[in-house]
Every structure is written in C-alpha cells, then in structure tokens.
Design brief:
By secondary structure, this protein is low in regular secondary structure. It is 6% helix and 10% strand. It contains one helix and nine strands; from the N terminus they run E-H-E-E-E-E-E-E-E-E. The protein has one helix spanning 11-26; strands spanning 7-8, 40-41, 126-128, 146-148, 166-168, 186-188, 206-208, 226-228, 246-248. The strands form two sheets. Strands 3-4-5-6-7-8-9 form a seven-stranded parallel β-sheet, with no helix packed on it. A two-stranded parallel sheet has the order 1-2. 51% of the residues are buried.
C-alpha cells in the first residue's frame, strides 16, 4: 500500500498547494502548478471540499481524513491509504485507485463512475447510494462490505471478493462478476439482470426478492444457498451447482 516514508505536510502548505493547483486547473496548465502529494502524509486532516482534480496522490496517506464533498476527478491515487476516511459525496470520476486501501471508509453518495479500483482493498467498507457505473473493480476486496442502494451498472468486477457482504436494493445490471466470490452474502431486492456470473461462487448465500433475469450463471456454485422469491427467468444455468440449495417461490422459467 502507501510508502513507509510518507512526509507530513503542514496545513498551510496544503492550502498554498491547493491554491496553486486551482490556478493550474483554471488556466489549463498555463499558470499555477499541479499538486504533487505523492507519498504525502495527510492523515486525519480536515480537507472537506478540497479540489484535487488530476492531482498526484500516489501512495499518499489520507487515513482517517475528512474528505467530504472533495473532488478527486482524474487524480492518481494508486496505492493511497484512504482507510477510515470520510468520503461522503466525494467525486472520484475516472480516478486511478488501483491497489488503494479504502477499508472501513465511509463512501455515502460518493461517485466512482469510470474509476479504476482494480485490486483495491475495500473490506468492511460502507457503500450507501454510491455510484460505480462502468467502474473497474477487478480482484478488489469487498469482504463483509455493506452495499445499500448503489449503482454498479456495467461495472467490471471480475474475480472480486464479496464474501460475507450485504447487497441491498442495488443496481448490478450487466455487471461482470465472472469468477467472483459471493459466498455467504445477503442479496436483497437487487437487480442482476443480464449480469455475468460465470463460475462465480455464491454458496451459502441468501438471495431474497432479487432479479437475475437473463443472467449468465454457467458453472456458478450455488451450493447451500437459500433462494427466495427471486427471478431467474431466461438465466443461463448450465453446469451451475444447486446442490443443497433451498429454493422457495422463485421463477426459473425458460432458464437452461
């Protein structure tokens, strides 16, 4: 994750740097200077509403910082530490967050559209009304994450770990979850229409009033799951393992 030799930046330095960065953005690089906070220690600071669009924060330490309503659009946050940070309403549109640490961060209403979160650590993260359309989360860790009322339309979540997570009333339509681990999850009133779940592990999960219409579940492992009042019409189910699955009032018409 972040570098071990992060340098503590003083608040007045951050303010001056943010002002120069604002000029750089406003003048499209003709004036001011792009903020370079690579491996900077900004932990526990109150940086609410700061604009670091397209800034370099690779390997920065933002652990526990208040970044509410801040703008990181297009910024480089690879391997940054954002664990325990308050990221409510923050903007991460097209941001590079590969291998970033977001464990237990508060992401209420945060916008990650088209962001790259490949291999990010998001264990026990709180996602409420967050936006991830067309984002990349390949091999990301969302173990025991709480996902409520989120938008993941067309996200790439191949081989993502969601073990023990709760997914409630979220839009997962056309998400690529092939090879993902959804074991022991609770999936409640969520929409997985046309999602790719090939060879996904969904064993011991509870699927309640959720929609898997036309989803691809070929080779998926649903062993021991409880499937209740859910829709699997036209789903592709060849070689899916439903051994010991408890199926109640669910629709598998025209599935194969």
């Amino acid at each position: 994750m972040m570098g071990k030799n992060c340098i503590r930046i003083q608040k007045e330095q951050i303010t001056a740097m943010a002002n120069e960065h604002h000029r750089w953005l406003e003048t499209e690089g003709r004036e001011g200077k792009r903020a370079d906070l690579q491996e900077a220690d900004l932990s526990n600071y109150n940086l609410q509403q700061i604009n670091l669009e397209r800034a370099n924060l690779q390997g920065a330490n933002l652990r526990g910082a208040n970044l509410r309503t801040s703008n990181f659009k297009g910024a480089d946050l690879r391997q940054a530490d954002l664990s325990l940070a308050n990221l409510q309403w923050a903007i991460f549109l097209s941001t590079d967050l590969r291998k970033a640490d977001l464990r237990q961060a508060n992401l209420h209403f945060a916008n990650f559209a088209k962001a790259n979160l490949d291999q990010a650590d998001m264990e026990k993260v709180f996602l409420h009304n967050a936006f991830f359309p067309e984002a990349r989360l390949k091999e990301a860790n969302l173990t025991k994450a709480c996902l409520r009322f989120n938008e993941f339309y067309l996200a790439d979540m191949r081989q993502t770990v969601l073990k023990g997570a709760t997914i409630t009333e979220s839009n997962m339509r056309e998400v690529n979850l092939s090879g993902a681990d959804l074991s022991d999850t609770e999936i409640i009133r969520s929409d997985f229409e046309r999602a790719d779940l090939k060879k996904a592990v969904i064993c011991r999960a509870w699927l309640f009033k959720s929609n898997f219409d036309s989803a691809d579940l070929r080779g998926a492992d649903l062993k021991g799951s409880k499937i209740e009042k859910s829709n699997f019409r036209k789903a592709m189910m060849r070689e899916a393992n439903r051994a010991d699955a408890h199926i109640l009032e669910s629709d598998f018409q025209q599935s194969d």
